[in-house]
């Protein structure tokens, strides 16, 4: 490809419309006879311009600075041309102009990516998920100001070192009381969301190389908290004189026997309850988080709670549940009053449903997965717990079969 014979850069001037004898300086890029021009926003006196050389005349400091700037412009245009050739992209006068001005895809910025991602995902993801992406954006902006002393960078500046420095910054972030803001998994979640944005940039061809290629997200694994049969019975049998605690206890127990999340309990209405194929009452709803259709037979313990609040004047749903933050605060009081030394949140009810109510009573994990509204069985396996009593029961059954075989062979 004989690019040197078809590519030229020249500087020229036009008369200024506002001031007589003053010239405005332009640069013209020509490839295969096609031109693109860029105004350099520089002016010079008509008598100081050398048309043949395309430079200023004289040795004054002002002229020397102008000519040095024009040399830089020419060098950058040559560099843009070389980049396009190396990237095997279409080399045209307009393409070089766009690359020079930073208006082509290669010169997109990190904030461009975040704005594009969040602008599109706001119509796809749930508000709670989008809130997490906005928080990640906040940390990224703080990181840029702290480490780069600027508000934005080009995507081509993203590299493996950037990811490592971002991880280090997130681990050291503190609040007003100088306490660490994030634990390891919190840091990893922000990096995971950032990785998804960068993956989008790769698909859009805004970057040529993914800086996350050699970076591994390392989450700490924790056993998810759930209530044992004894602990669940303790909460069920405890009555509270304070209405706020009694209401939340009932809502929590209802979730333990249905597997519904906080938001699904809050939005539960009578029109979502109907007779199932077994002529028993079922809940027919869509999970707020995944929009997955869920069909749940209502166990007697859960139905008793619904009947209890049938005539209760709630604003929207069937049960008297307050904000998620207050619910979790009240649950800590409830756990303390019942002598349960676990960090209980409303989501613990969902784990309890999967583990204590379902799996430990022999319900197959495939059925539990359907009841929880999971799209993948692997997600349900995170909730699943093999409890000591279930192990003991299974081994007991195994030993019984051994004994039966021995008696048959004797």
Automatic annotation (TrEMBL):
The UniProt keywords, alphabetically, are: DNA recombination, DNA-binding
Which residues are in the Tyr recombinase domain? 221-397
Give one Pfam family, short name only.
Answer: Phage_int_SAM_5
In terms of SUPFAM superfamilies, this protein maps to: DNA breaking-rejoining enzymes
Q: Tell me its family.
A: Belongs to the 'phage' integrase family.
Its name, as the record gives it, is Site-specific integrase
According to its UniProt entry, this protein's organism is Arenibacter arenosicollis
Q: What is the lineage of its organism?
A: Bacteria, Pseudomonadati, Bacteroidota, Flavobacteriia, Flavobacteriales
């Amino acid at each position: 490809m004989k690019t040197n014979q078809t590519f030229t850069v020249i500087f020229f001037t036009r008369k200024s419309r506002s001031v007589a004898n003053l010239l405005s300086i332009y640069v013209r890029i020509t490839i295969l006879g096609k031109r693109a021009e860029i105004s350099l926003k520089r002016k010079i006196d008509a008598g100081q311009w050398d048309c043949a050389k395309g430079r200023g005349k004289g040795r004054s400091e002002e002229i020397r600075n102008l000519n040095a700037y024009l040399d830089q412009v020419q060098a950058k245009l040559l560099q843009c041309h070389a980049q396009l050739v190396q990237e095997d992209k279409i080399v045209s006068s307009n393409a070089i102009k766009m690359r020079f001005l930073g208006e082509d895809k290669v010169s997109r910025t990190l904030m461009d990516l975040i704005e594009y991602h969040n602008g599109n995902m706001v119509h796809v993801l749930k508000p709670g998920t989008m809130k997490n992406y906005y928080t990640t954006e906040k940390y990224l902006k703080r990181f840029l100001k702290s480490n780069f002393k600027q508000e934005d960078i080009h995507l081509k500046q993203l590299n493996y070192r950037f990811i490592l420095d971002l991880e280090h910054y997130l681990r050291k972030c503190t609040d007003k009381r100088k306490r660490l803001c994030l634990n390891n998994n919190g840091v990893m979640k922000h990096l995971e969301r950032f990785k998804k944005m960068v993956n989008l940039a790769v698909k859009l061809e805004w970057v040529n190389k993914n800086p996350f290629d050699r970076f591994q997200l390392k989450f700490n694994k924790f056993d998810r908290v759930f209530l044992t049969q004894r602990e669940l019975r303790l909460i069920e049998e405890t009555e509270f004189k304070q209405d706020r605690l009694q209401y939340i206890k009932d809502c929590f127990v209802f979730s333990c026997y249905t597997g519904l999340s906080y938001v699904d309990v809050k939005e539960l209405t009578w029109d979502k309850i109907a007779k199932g194929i077994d002529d028993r009452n079922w809940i027919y709803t869509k999970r707020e988080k995944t929009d997955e259709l869920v069909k749940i037979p209502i166990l007697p313990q859960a139905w008793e709670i619904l009947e209890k609040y049938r005539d209760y004047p709630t604003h929207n749903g069937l049960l008297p549940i307050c904000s998620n933050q207050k619910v979790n605060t009240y649950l800590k009081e409830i756990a303390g009053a019942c002598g349960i030394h676990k960090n209980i949140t409303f989501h613990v009810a969902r784990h309890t449903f999967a583990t204590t109510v379902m799996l430990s009573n022999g319900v197959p994990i495939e059925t539990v997965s359907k009841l929880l509204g999971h799209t993948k069985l692997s997600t349900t396996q995170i909730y699943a717990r093999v409890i000591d009593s279930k192990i003991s029961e299974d081994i007991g059954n195994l030993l019984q079969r051994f004994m039966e075989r021995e008696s048959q062979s004797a």
